[in-house]
C-alpha cells in the first residue's frame, strides 16, 4: 500500500497516489513537497510510480529488488549513492528492531533484529522511500512529521538526513543491547556451562563485526552526502549530514570498544578454563602419586613366587595393609602441607 504525505502552503494535505501521478515531478510547485512511502510494494505499484512517473532506470529497480524476501531471508544490497539526471538514488542498510522492545531480554532482542534494505529516490520536490519489509524508522519519521509539518519545508534532502540519523540511532540501540548481553555473559563465565558461554561470545563477536562493516559502508554514503557532492543536497543541509556522520563515528567507536571487551571476556574464559584444567591435572597427579607406592607394594607381593619371605607369616596381610595406609596418610599430609591439594 502506497502512502502519500503531501505538504503545501504550510500544511499537510491528504492525497491519493492516483491524484499525485497526474502531475509530473518537474511541475510540482516550489512551495509543495511529496513523500511517497512504498512498504512492500507490488510490481504494479513500482511500475506506476517508479517507471512511469519518475522514469527510474531499470538497473535501479533491479538493485531495489535485491532485498526482496527469498525463502524467508533478506539479502540487502551493498549501500551506495548514485546520481542520475533528475534524481538521486540512495541504498542503505536498515536495522529493523523487534516490536515491542520493552520487556524483551537482550538475547531475544538480538535474535529478532533484522537487517533490511531501504531505497530512497530523491528529486527536487519528491522523496520516495521503498522497502520490501516494515522499517520502523520510517514510521517514526512519519509520526514526527504529522506533529511538526514544518519539517517538510526543508525539502527532501532534509528528510533523508532525518531518516539516516534515525537509522544510526537504531544501530546504537542494538549496540547498547549487546553491552547488556555481555554483562550477562560475564556473570555466567564462572558459573554456567563454559562451552555455551563461549558460543554466545563468538555469536556476539560475529554480530559486532557485521555491525561494524555495515556502519563503515553506511558512513561512506553519509560522508559523500555531507561533502555536498550532489546537486540535490543543498549546501545548507550538509551540516545535518555531517552530524549524522559524527553519529556514525561514535557508533563505530562503540563497536571497537565492544569488540575489545568481547576479546577480553574470551581471554578471561580461556584463562578460567586453563585454571580449571590445571586444578584437575594437579588432583590427578596427586592421586597417581599416592597410588604409585601402593601399586609397587601390591605388585611386589602379588608375584606369587613359592619362596618369598612373609608369604607364610600369619600377620603378613594386615601388616601390608597397615603399611599401605601409613604411606597414604603420610603422602596426603605431605601434599597438604605443601599446598598441593588446593
Strand segment count: 7
Estimate nothing, just give the exact number of structural domains.
2
Radius of gyration using CA atoms only: 35 Å
Helix and strand succession? EEHEHHEEHEEHHHHH
Global outline = rod-shaped
Biggest sheet record? 7 strands, mixed
List keywords for this structure.
Methane Monooxygenase Hydroxylase, Chain G, domain 1; 2 domains; seven-stranded mixed beta sheet; 342 residues; Beta Polymerase, domain 2
List the helices and strands and how they pair.
Elements: E1 3-8, E2 11-13, H1 17-20, E3 32-39, H2 43-53, H3 58-65, E4 80-83, E5 88-96, H4 106-112, E6 114-122, E7 126-131, H5 136-147, H6 156-188, H7 194-226, H8 238-300, H9 316-337
Amino acid at each position: 500500500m502506497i502512502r502519500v504525505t503531501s505538504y503545501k502552503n504550510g500544511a499537510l494535505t491528504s492525497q491519493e497516489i492516483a491524484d499525485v501521478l497526474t502531475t509530473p515531478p518537474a511541475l510540482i510547485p516550489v512551495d509543495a513537497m511529496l513523500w511517497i512511502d512504498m512498504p512492500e510494494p507490488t510490481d504494479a505499484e513500482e511500475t506506476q510510480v517508479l517507471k512511469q512517473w519518475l522514469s527510474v532506470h531499470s538497473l535501479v529497480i533491479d538493485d531495489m529488488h535485491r532485498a526482496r524476501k527469498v525463502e524467508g531471508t533478506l539479502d540487502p544490497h551493498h549501500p551506495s549513492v548514485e546520481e542520475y539526471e533528475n534524481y538521486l538514488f540512495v541504498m542503505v542498510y536498515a536495522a529493523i528492531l523487534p516490536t515491542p522492545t520493552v520487556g524483551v531480554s537482550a538475547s531475544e532482542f538480538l535474535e529478532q533484529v533484522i537487517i533490511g534494505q531501504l531505497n530512497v529516490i530523491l528529486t527536487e520536490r519528491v522523496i520516495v522511500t521503498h522497502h520490501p519489509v516494515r522499517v520502523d524508522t520510517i514510521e517514526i519519521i512519519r509520526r514526527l512529521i504529522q506533529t511538526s509539518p514544518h519539517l517538510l519545508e526543508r525539502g527532501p534532502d532534509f528528510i533523508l538526513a532525518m531518516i539516516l540519523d534515525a537509522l544510526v540511532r537504531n544501530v546504537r540501540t542494538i549496540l547498547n543491547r549487546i553491552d547488556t548481553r555481555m554483562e550477562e555473559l560475564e556473570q555466567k563465565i564462572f558459573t554456567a556451562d563454559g562451552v555455551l558461554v563461549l558460543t554466545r561470545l563468538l555469536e556476539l563477536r560475529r554480530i559486532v563485526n557485521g555491525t561494524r562493516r555495515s556502519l563503515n559502508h553506511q558512513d561512506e554514503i553519509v560522508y559523500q552526502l555531507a561533502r555536498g557532492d550532489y546537486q540535490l543536497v543543498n549546501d545548507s543541509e550538509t551540516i545535518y549530514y555531517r552530524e549524522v556522520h559524527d553519529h556514525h563515528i561514535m557508533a563505530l567507536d562503540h563497536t571497537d570498544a565492544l569488540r575489545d571487551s568481547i576479546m577480553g571476556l574470551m581471554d578471561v574464559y580461556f584463562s578460567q578454563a586453563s585454571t580449571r584444567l590445571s586444578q584437575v591435572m594437579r588432583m590427578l597427579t596427586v592421586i597417581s602419586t599416592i597410588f604409585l607406592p601402593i601399586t609397587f607394594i601390591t605388585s611386589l607381593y602379588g608375584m606369587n613366587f613359592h619362596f618369598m619371605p612373609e608369604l607364610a607369616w600369619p600377620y603378613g596381610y594386615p601388616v601390608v595393609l597397615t603399611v599401605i595406609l601409613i604411606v597414604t596418610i603420610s603422602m596426603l599430609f605431605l601434599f597438604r602441607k605443601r599446598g598441593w591439594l588446593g
